[in-house]
Amino acid sequence: MSKTVMEKLMVTIGITDQMAGPAASINKTIAGMKQNATAGFGAITGGALGLAGAGMAIKEFMAPVYDMQRALGEVRSLGTAEKELARLEKTALGFSVKYGESAAGFVRSSYDIQSAIGGLVDGELAKFTEASNILAKGTKADAGTITAYMGTMYGIFQDQAIKMGKAEWVQMLTGQTAEAVRMFKTSGAEMSTAFTSLGANAQSAGIGMVEQMAVLGTLQATMSGSEAGTKYKSFLNGVAQAQEKLGISFTDSQGKMLPMLDILQRLKGRFGETLDVAEGAELKQAFGSDEAVGLVKLLMGQTEGLGKSIADIGMIKGMDNAAKMAQTMVDPWEQFGSVTEALRIKIGGALLPTINGLLGKMSEGLTVVMGWTAEFPNITKLVGLLALGILGLGAAVGLVSILSGIGSLFMSAFGGAMLLVKVLAFGLTAGLVILKLALLAVGAVMAFLLSPIGLIVLAVGAVIYLIGDWLGWWDKLKDSVGNIDWLQKILGWLGKVGDAIKKAMKWLGLGGDISADVTASSSMTTSAVMPEMPALQPQESFSMLDDVRKPDATLPSASDSLAAAMGSKGGPTITGNNFTFQNPWRPSDAENWAELQAG
C-alpha cells in the first residue's frame, strides 16, 4: 500500500513538474501579448489624438480668418467692389484694435448700410460703417440699430448728404447725434426710434436736422423716443389748420414753416407763458390732437433751453466727440482679445491661400476615394471589415483593461478591509492591556488598603472626615465657595469618597472603634484647641454615631490596634463630657468615655 501511495505521489509531482514550465510559458506569452497590444493601441490612440489635436488647433487658430471671410462674402454678394472690400477689412481691423470690438461684426454691419445707401464709392462704405460703429459704441447701442438709423437719416436728408459729401455728412451726423445723446441723457436707440416715428415730415416742412434733433431730444426728457416722434409729427400735421383757426401765421414769405422757437414765441404772445384749461382746449381745437397740445405745453416753458441746445448741436461738424465717448467705453480685456484676434486674422490671411490649397487637394483626394468605393464595392467592404476588426480588437483590449482594473479595485478593497481588521484587533489588544493595567492598579490599591498601613491611613482619613462633618467644616467650606461650580463638584466628589470610606470601614467591622476614636478625638480637640462649645443634646450631636457606639465583640477592636500603634502609657483627664489627654490614650479610656456618654 505504501508503495502505491508513493508511486501516486511521484506521478503527481512529475506531472506538476512537466506542466509548470509550459504553463509559465503560456502565462508569459499571454502577458506579453497583452502588453504589446496595449502598447500598440496606446500608440495608435496617441497618434490619432495628436492628429486630431493638431487639426483642431489649426482650425481654432484660423477661425477668425474664416469668420472674416464669411462676413466679406456677405457684403461681396451685394456687388461691392474688391477695392472697397479691402478698405473695409483694413478699417475693421483698425476699429477692433482701438475699441475692442469684433472685426467680423464690423464688416457685417456694413451690409445694412450698403443695402440702404447706394453708390458708396472711394471708401465711403468704410467711413459710413466706422461712423456707425463708433456711434453705437459711444451711445450704448448695438451696431444693427445704429446702421438702420444711418440708413433712415440718409433717406430723410439725402440731398444734404449729397451736397456736403456723404463721408463728411455721416461724420457730422455721428457727432451731432452723440452730442444730443449726451445732452439729453438718452441713448442712440431712443434717437433712432424717435426719427423713425417722425419720418420725413419735418424735413418736408423745411426744418433742419439740428432743430429736429434738439426738439426730439428735449421731448425725450419726459417720454420715450417713439412718443416724442409721434407728438412732433402730430404738431407738424396740425400747423397749417392751426394758423388759420388761431389767426397766427406759422410760415415765412416762401411758405416754409417757421423755426420752432419763432412759433413758440408767437403762441406766447397770444396765450402768455402758460396755458389754462380754456386755452388748452382752444389749442386742441386748432391743432386737432392732444399730442400737439402736449408738445406746445412742454416746449413753451423751455424755449431758452431749446435755443441753447440748437446752437450747441449746430456747432458739431465732425465726430471727434463721439470717438471720445466710445473710447471711454473700452474694456481693456476685450481690447486685448480683439488685438489678438486681429493678429490671427492678419497671419491667417497670409496663410490662407496655402491652407486653402492644401484643403482643396485633400478634398480632391477624398473625392477620388469616394469614386473608388463605387467602382470596387468588394474592396470597400473588406476595408470596412478591416477597420471594424481593428476597432473590435481595440474594444477587446479595453475590456481586458477594464476587467483588470476591476480586479485591482477588489484587491484594494480587500486589502483595506484587512487593514481595518488589523486596526480593530490592535485596538482590542490595546484595550485589554489597559484593562489589565487597571486591574493591576486596583489590586495594588486594595492590597494597600487591606494592609495594616492602609487600614491606618483609612482610619485617619475617616477620622478627619467625620471630625470635619461633626464640626460643620464641610458645610462652611461649601457655603464659602458656593458660587464656584468646579469647587462644588470637587466637594461633592469628596463627600462621595467619604461616604464610600465609611461604608468600607463598616464592612470591615471597624465602625464601632472608629466612632469611639472619632468622638474621643473630637473631645480632645475641643479641649486642647478650640474654646468650649455650648452643650449639645446627645440625640442631636451624635445621632450620626448611633450605629457605631457599641462595637461588635466578635471583631477585633480598632481602638486596641490604634492604641498599640501609638503607645499605651498615661491616660486622659476627664472634665465633664470632655477628655484632656496628657499621655497617649488606651483602649480602656475609649471604653470608659463611651460608657460615660451612654449614661
Keywords for this structure?
1% strand; 25 helices; 599 residues; mainly alpha; two-stranded antiparallel sheet; flat
Mean of residue pLDDT?
Answer: 77
What count of helical segments does DSSP give?
Answer: 25
* Cα separation of the termini: 102 Å
What percentage of residues falls in helices of 4 or more residues? over 70%
Number of strands: 2
Kindly provide the radius of gyration, computed on alpha-carbon positions and rounded to a whole number of angstroms.
57 Å
Helix/strand class: mainly alpha
Major pleated sheet = 2 strands, antiparallel
| Biggest sheet, spatial arrangement of strands | 1-2
Spell the H/E element sequence. Answer: HHHHHHHHHHHHHHHHHHHHHHHHEEH
Percent in strands: under 5%
Low-confidence stretches: 511-572, 574-579
What is the global morphology? flat
Quaternary: single chain
Outline the structure in words.
The chain has 599 residues and is mainly alpha-helical. It has 25 helices and two strands. A two-stranded antiparallel ribbon has the order 1-2. β1 (572-575) and β2 form a beta hairpin. The longest helix has 75 residues, at 2-76. The two termini are 102 Å apart.
